[in-house]
Amino acid sequence: MNVIGITIVGFVFGLLISFAGLNKNNTIASLSILKNFTVAKTIMLVLGVGGLLLMIEMMAGGAQFHVKPLYTIGTPLGGLIFGVGMAILGYCPGTLPISLGQGSIDALIGIVGGLVGGLLYTISYPAILQIMGGNLGQISLLSLMGNRFCTGYFIVVFLISMVMILGAFILHKLDVKKGIASKRWIVTGIGLAVLNVFLFYQGWMNKPMGASSSYPYVADCLTGLTSESYFSSVVNSGSWQVWFLLGAFLAGVASLMGKKNIKLALIHSFWKEYKGTSIAKRVIWAFIGGVLLIFGARMADGCTSGHIISGGMQVAISSYVFAIFTFIGFLSTGHFFYRK
Questions:
Q1: How far, in Å, CA of 9 to CA of 225, rounded?
Q2: Which of 46, 73, 167, 330 places its Cα 20 to 30 Å from the Cα of 124?
Q3: What are phi and psi of 327, to 5 degrees?
Q4: 67: which DSSP letter?
Q5: Is the sign of the CA dihedral 122, 237, 222, 115 positive or negative?
């Protein structure tokens, strides 16, 4: 495993995320009440641009599919839990180390919660298998169309990509009306799409982006639970993601270079506006959010980067199901949790 190369990839990922402020608690949490669409429009742009590029790469024989299985209960239920955790915490598994590098203490609390969530999932894994429901397999648009790169497949992917790109710019118009006019998300969206396409390349990493497997991997290593059945399923992806997230953390630190006023922060402006200034309240909810975030991600076998982005670029049905239920949980929690 080329740890230096993986760390560099994580560093680039972290810089791209930081450039548009996608790691910020204010940015992610405010989407849960539809106050800021930066995260949503960036993801849509990644899916639009990345879906086209990845299709071309696959048709040329340079990449292969890495589709996650669709469980009738586990995938949607995991998405709901993940969405609830993301709304409460205000971070994703991949953005936590970036924000920690920038001095966000609540991100550290979220990481600790995520490690506990990963540990709880490892311990309860045998029981969870009983409620996951049926495994419908690794279904994608290509498999539904007979596993052939035909003209029809190209047309459908092209249309989906155009809808995603158009939708991203429609959301941007709504943001502009709210005074959020920055176009940095365009650079980040295209950059993340290209980065993921390079990661898929068989002659290099031959894997998609991901972040949530690292949490149970680290937690199991720290607690000596490496003999548990679940650990063997995350050891490869988890060890890869540890170095990836280390690079993301370093990017967060690097993004502070040149800034005069560097401050540690526990309570951010969005949280303060809706939940107040209680330190204890923020610590408790950040921890709970971290637990739910990673537990849900592992139940669904992916997170924002590994499922919604990487899977969405492949037009994987499990990833679309996960995304739908993630946003149901995310927006529902935002509606009830963030009340002035």
A1: 29
A2: 330
A3: -75, -25
A4: P
A5: negative
Sketch the domain layout of the chain as residue ranges.
Answer: 3-337
One-letter amino acid identity for 166?
Answer: L
Q: Cα-flanking dihedrals φ and ψ of residue 210, to 5°?
A: -175, 160
Q: How far is CA 137 from CA 68, 140, 141, in A?
A: 8, 9, 13
Indicate the pTM of the whole model.
0.96
Contacts of 253-262 with C-beta under 8 Å, sequence gap 24+, read 253/101, 253/102, 254/11, 254/14, 254/15, 254/101, 255/14, 255/15, 255/18, 255/98, 255/101, 255/102, 256/101, 256/102, 256/103, 262/103
Task: Transcribe 119-132 into DSSP letters.
Answer: HHHHHHHHHHGGGS
Residue 224 in 3-state DSSP? Answer: coil
Task: Count other Cβ atoms within 10 Å, centred on residue 238.
Answer: 22
Q: Give residue-wise pLDDT tens across range 252-268.
A: 999 988 677 778 999 99
DSSP class of residue 244? H
